[in-house]
Design goal:
Distance between the termini: 67 Å
Order of helices and strands: HHEEEEHEEHEEE
Number of strands: 9
Helix content: 40-55%
Largest sheet: 9 strands, mixed
Number of helices: 4
Shape: elongated
Oligomer: single chain
Strand content: 25-35%
């Protein structure tokens, strides 16, 4: 029988303690890895779901534009990039604002996701929704937009809102602009508006 001070007994107890500590540390590390993996997977799935939702809504907004505005599909085919905000919501009666999320399409594929925000002052219908579509006809304007950390219409780039001519087609002067904008509601294309002051920021999606 070993005495309490027997070196072999002390070494045996140390080995048992080391094994227990190793098991505890291993279990803790494994639990942390599982938690991190679960969190990362959940965040990735959530981001993927948001991208899918934005893309589906953007497809719907573009199809509605093509069906409503003669010549818009052909114009889109010439654009270097198309920024689509399918639902920009206006809220407030006197002091309010507008906000929406959208996707930038280049070559028919989404290459980035953005938010748009505009402050406003004056009477407006609470909860009113509209689609805002910007077509970058000039490559340098598209590159400038993609490189910017924050882009504001009227400051970083001038947007020419589409006007429809007497023949029902897009006004030829508008078609020559480097950035062309469409604003649509359920009632159709909106005219006599301005997008100046609209701020667009890239989303981390």
């Amino acid at each position: 029988m070993f005495s309490p001070l027997d070196p072999e007994a002390i070494e045996s107890r140390e080995k048992r303690m080391n094994r227990r500590n190793f098991v505890v540390l291993s279990a803790t590390a494994l639990a942390g890895s599982i938690t991190a993996f679960t969190t990362t997977t959940s965040s990735a799935a959530e981001a993927d779901s948001k991208r899918h939702e934005i893309n589906a809504a953007a497809d719907g907004a573009l199809n509605k534009l093509y069906a409503s505005v003669h010549g818009s599909r052909e114009l889109a085919g010439k654009a270097n990039g198309i920024l689509v905000f399918p639902s920009v919501i206006a809220a407030g009666l006197v002091v309010g604002g507008e906000y929406g999320k959208g996707a930038l399409r280049v070559g028919g594929k989404s290459v980035g996701y953005y938010s748009t925000a505009t402050g406003s002052f004056g009477l407006q219908a609470g909860g009113q929704s509209k689609s805002v579509i910007l077509m970058f006809m000039a490559q340098h304007e598209l590159e400038k937009f993609r490189k910017s950390k924050g882009w504001t219409a009227g400051v970083d780039g001038s947007v020419a809102l589409v006007k429809i001519g007497a023949n029902g087609n897009i006004d030829t002067n508008t078609m020559r602009a480097p950035i062309i904008g469409f604003v649509m509601t359920n009632a159709g294309l909106m005219a006599n508006l301005s997008l100046e002051g609209t701020k667009i920021t890239r989303l981390n999606l």
